[in-house]
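G., before I forget:
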Amino acid sequence: MTRQNMTLEVNGRRYDVSVEPRKTLADTLRDDCGLTGTHLGCEHGVCGACTIIVDGETVRSCLMFAVQAEGRAIRTVEGLARGNELHPLQSAFMQHHALQCGYCTPGFLMLTAGVLEQNPDIGEEELVDILSSNLCRCTGYENILKAVLAAAADMRAAK
Amino acid sequence: MKPAPFIHHKPRTIEDAVRLIAEFAPDDGRILAGGQSLVPIMAFRMAKPPHLVDINDVAGLDRLEVVDGMLHVGARVRHAAFRQNAAPGPTGAFLGAVMRNIAHHPIRTRGTFCGSLAHADPASEWCAVAALLDAVLVARSLDGQREIPVRDYFEAVMTTALRPDEILVEARLPLLAPDARFGFCEFSRRSGDFAIAMCLVTLRVEQGRIRDARFGIGGAEAFPRRLAEVEAILDGATPGETVWAEAARVAAAALDPLEDAVTSGAYRRDLVQSLALRAFKQVEA
C-alpha cells in the first residue's frame, strides 16, 4: 500500500515520517517517531491509554490516523517534564501513589494535563466524570483523583 | 486491531467532498468526520472502506448558529461544542445536559453531532434529541441539497434515508420556547457506555397545566421516536406524581423494545418506565 511522506510536530520537534493512511497516530508516534510513552491498550477508543493532546484538545490517538495530524501541534507524555523538572501532575502521581503498574499512567497524565489547562479550577465532581474516560486496573482511581486535585492546587498556587 | 488499507482523500471544499463521495460511494467509500464510531469499526474490520473522504478540513462545516428560530449544526461541530450554551435559553441548557451523557471527554472533542446522526446507532443521544425536537437534516450530493424531516430519516438500526453518495452537511433543530422545561435520563452499565434506554421530555407549564409536551425514547428501540400516547396524557394535565406515573406506565407499554443476549425486552420496558419518571422529576425541579 502507498505510504505518504509527511512531517509531524510532536512536543515542538519535527518528525519526518512515511506511513500508510491506515496507520493510527498512536502507532505512528510509537513506531515511526520512537515515542513509546504513548501506550496502546484496546486500540478501539475505550481504554484511554493512548490519550494525547492535539491542538490543545485531549484525543484518543488510536482513533486518529497520522495523516490527519499533519500540521497540528501534538503533545505526548514525553513533553510534560521540563528537563529534569517533572510536571506538577507527574510529581503528584508519585506522591499520592496514583499508579501501580503504570501502563495507564501516560494516558491519565495527558488527559488531566489537557483538562487542567482548559479548566484549572475544575471541581471534584466534574473531575470524577473526566477520570471515567480512562481505565486503570490497579489503583481504584481514588489516588488518581487525589493526585490530580493536588496537582491542580499546586498549579494554581504557582501562577 | 489494525484497519484495512484505504486511500485517504482530504477535500478543502464541500464541492470537492461531494464530488469525491459521488465517485467512491459505489466502491463503499465513506465519509470520515470525527471518526469516533467509524474508526473502531474499521479497527475491528467490521468495515473496510477502500476510500475515506475526510471532511475535517472542509471549509464552512463548523457552523453552529441560530437562523430563523432553528439551531443550525454543521457537519464538523463536535460534541464538546455543546458544553456551554450552544443556543439561547433552554435549548442550550438541554443540549448541554444531554452532551454530558455522550461517551467521554476525549471522545467529545472529536466526535460530531452530524456524525452521530449519520451513523444512527440506536443508543445515540443526538439521534434521540433530533427525533424529540423534530430536526431537519440537510443532505448534499451532486444532485444538490435536500432537507429530510426527521420522521422520514431513521429507517432501522444504523440505517437512515441518507444515500451513500450524500453528505449530511447540517442538522437544524427548532428552538424550545423560552419557558420550556426539560428532562433527560439514560441508563448504561458503565459510565460513558452505550445507553440501554433513555427518556427525554420537554414541556411548558401554563396556569398550572402542561402544554407543548414532547416525550421521546432512545436506545430502547431500533431508532428513537416520540411517543404520541405519552404526550397526549401529559398535555393539559397538572404536573405531579399522578400524571408522571401514568405517563411512565404508558411509555413502557408503548415500547417495541430491542432485545439482545444480555438485555431482554421486558428489562428495557421496566427501564423506560423508571427513566421516564426520573426525567419527569427533572422537569419538576
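Chain A has two domains: 4-78, 88-158. Chain A has a mean pLDDT of 97.

More on Monday.
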